[in-house]
Amino acid sequence: MLVVDDDGNPLPPGQRGYIVIAIPNPAMAKMWNDPNYERLVKTYWSRFPGYFYTGDYGFYDSDGYLYVLGRADDILSIAGERFGTMDIEGVLARHKAVAEAAVVGAPAPGGGERVLAFVVLKSGETPSEVLINDIKEFARASGTRLMM
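^ thats the sequence. predicted structure below, dont judge the formating
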């Protein structure tokens, strides 16, 4: 597996990019009988010639471990910036009161997208407007500007 940039060039450790597979796995053979074969070839085999595009993005660390950061097509475009849903979920899940988080895009007033976050609170936490605002501020302070 490799992590490559938009042009298919391998990236050094620590740089985010698209995860691709250089040598196909025999399990991929089932796609040849798939009724959506042409779409699969266009989506997964044509984007980076010579590689199978997994649809995920990630990076290798300096020890050679691969970190999968999420789906490359799970990107929200908010105020002209692109955010991965998994990145935002990770920030929200680090809040002391949050057990789990899920994020989707929602239409923003006046056009564009905004973040719609669903959080599960840890046992003993009580939902309130104060807590909602605290979670939003925590996310903003973590370097992710969320338009919630």
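The chain is about 20% helix and 35% strand.
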